[in-house]
């Protein structure tokens, strides 16, 4: 038997309403904040991610689904959404669009070759936004507030928002030096990745999952102390305006994005809920002032976040929040013989074209089984069609909730149901 690829999942018909509910809500909220959807291809040139995500990251080093196509191009299933959006921004010269800044969102499957565990898949769906073309603490606040709005709109309460500033490029070179001085003497106590990171990307050590409890991580120099006046001021304005709109946060001085083109604001949302499991990060985001130029684009800056729907669902589960089941069908037509099911199949055809949802029993079961089926399908109304009904055209329209019924003519079914 052929099985589903490791780390992927089927969203079964009994569960897909949850995804649809979440997706609809996300489209709605994006509209609220005036972000428009952008759809980029499922695969891109491998080089886009190598340059745009960074050769020293886990994503590029270990996690990409890369393949050669028949034309011998190296392509990669997208592991994240920012680089593709920025590629598209540059290619479509969006800096010249009449609408400025560019505020876009995406909702699409991402692919990473990762060890399967709870909340970690090899294909997962990310919802993310990017605001490109403006550098202002207030848009950083908008992005963060939208993120918190999303989680709160689903009723989640046990959330923690962590923020930090990693300053601008100038503040960072001094900081990187301090980190190297701090870790270098004891670097052999760290994992092999960190031993590479000390040379390629020392900030990334602070983000290491293996070494997170090492004493030197706790005593590491703080980025904050290395921020120049401008960067400090930017950070203070972000915090003051989060305060002003009542968004709670905690500053986490070890929260970093390890690449050169990330600047200023970095943030993460974690779930505090009991029973969430080992992975508690729901979302990550930050400002990337150098990314566009890194990809040969214009001198524009951006900020964004990405969350996965899989982890959002886990958080909902951990807080016992249920997504409302959708209403069932409007009408179920039970039939008593071959003639009536044939007629019923014509009736449902007409009703459906008029926007009424209805169904019949193609398995031609006994009436009792059909009633049960109607119930399972959540039918609001049922009628029973037999020889009598076919000859008179009159049927008993039964409301399944109250059990009440009334005699109606088949021809008035549509207007009646439309009214209801
Ligand atoms: P992690 O530390 O959990 O590996 P990350 O730093 O790789 O996360 P990002 O690249 O910032 O994650 O992606 C943003 C969000 O996408 C994460 O906060 C998480 O909600 C989600 N995410 C990342 N990887 C996966 C995955 N393999 N399966 C499901 N969701 C994921
Ligand atoms: Mg990861």
Q: Could you characterize the architecture of this molecule?
A:
The protein has 420 residues and is α+β, with helices and mostly antiparallel strands. It has 15 helices and 16 strands. It has helices at 16-32, 46-52, 58-63, 82-91, 137-153, 169-183, 192-200, 215-218, 229-244, 291-294, 309-318, 338-353, 367-376, 387-392, 413-419, and strands at residues 36-37, 43-45, 66-68, 74-77, 102-111, 123-132, 159-165, 250-251, 263-271, 281-288, 302-308, 331-335, 358-360, 381-385, 394-399, 405-409. The strands form 3 sheets. An 8-stranded mixed β-sheet has the order 1-5-6-11-10-9-7-8, sandwiched between helices. It has a 5-stranded mixed β-sheet with strand order 13-12-14-15-16, sandwiched between helices. The chain has a 3-stranded antiparallel β-sheet with strand order 2-4-3. Strand 12, helix 12 and strand 13 form a beta-alpha-beta unit. Adenosine-5'-triphosphate (ATP) is lined by residues 80, 112, 114, 119-121, 124, 126, 279, 281-284, 306-308, 310-311.
Mean pLDDT: 95
Q: Termini separation (Å)? A: 47 Å
Helical fraction: 25-40%
Query: Which small molecules are bound?
Result: adenosine-5'-triphosphate, magnesium ion
Fraction in beta strands: 15-25%
Instruction: Give the spatial strand order of the biggest sheet.
Output: 1-5-6-11-10-9-7-8
3D shape: elongated
Low-pLDDT stretches are none
Describe the sheet with the most strands: 8 strands, mixed
Number of DSSP strands?
16
């Amino acid at each position: 038997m052929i099985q589903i690829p490791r780390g992927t999942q089927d969203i079964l018909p009994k569960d897909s309403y949850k995804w649809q509910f979440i997706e609809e809500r996300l489209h709605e909220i994006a509209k609220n904040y005036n972000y428009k959807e952008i759809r980029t291809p499922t695969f891109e040139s491998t080089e886009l991610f190598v340059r745009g995500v960074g050769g020293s990251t886990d994503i590029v080093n270990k996690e990409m689904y890369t393949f050669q196509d028949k034309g011998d191009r190296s392509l990669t299933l997208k592991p994240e959404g920012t680089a593709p959006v920025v590629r598209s921004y540059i290619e479509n010269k969006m800096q010249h669009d009449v609408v400025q800044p560019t505020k876009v969102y995406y909702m699409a499957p991402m692919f990473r070759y990762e060890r399967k565990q709870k909340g970690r898949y090899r294909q997962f769906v990310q919802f993310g936004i990017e605001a490109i073309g403006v550098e202002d603490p207030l848009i950083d606040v908008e992005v963060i507030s939208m993120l918190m709005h999303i989680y709160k709109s689903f009723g989640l309460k046990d959330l923690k928002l962590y923020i930090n500033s990693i300053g601008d490029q100038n503040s960072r070179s001094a900081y990187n030096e301090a980190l190297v001085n701090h870790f270098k003497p004891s670097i052999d106590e760290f994992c092999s990745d960190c031993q590479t990171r000390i040379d390629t990307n020392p900030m990334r050590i602070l983000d290491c999952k293996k070494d997170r409890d090492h004493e030197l991580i706790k005593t590491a120099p703080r980025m904050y102390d290395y921020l120049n006046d401008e960067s400090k001021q930017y950070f203070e304005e972000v915090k003051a305006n989060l305060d002003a709109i009542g968004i709670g946060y905690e500053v986490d001085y070890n929260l970093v994005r390890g690449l050169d083109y990330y600047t200023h604001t970095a943030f993460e949302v974690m779930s505090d809920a009991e029973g969430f499991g080992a992975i508690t990060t729901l979302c990550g985001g930050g400002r990337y002032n150098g990314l566009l130029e890194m990809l040969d684009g214009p001198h524009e800056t951006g900020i964004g976040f990405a969350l996965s729907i899989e982890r959002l669902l886990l958080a909902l589960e951990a807080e016992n929040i249920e997504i409302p089941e959708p209403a069932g069908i409007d009408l179920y037509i039970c039939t008593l013989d071959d003639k009536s099911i044939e007629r019923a199949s014509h009736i449902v055809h007409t009703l459906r074209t008029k926007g009424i949802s209805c169904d019949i029993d193609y398995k031609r079961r006994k009436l009792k089984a059909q009633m049960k089926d109607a119930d399972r399908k959540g039918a609001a109304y049922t009628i029973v069609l037999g020889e009598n009904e076919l000859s008179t055209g009159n049927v008993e329209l039964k409301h399944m909730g109250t059990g009440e019924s009334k005699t109606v003519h088949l021809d008035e079914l549509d207007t009646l149901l439309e009214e209801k």
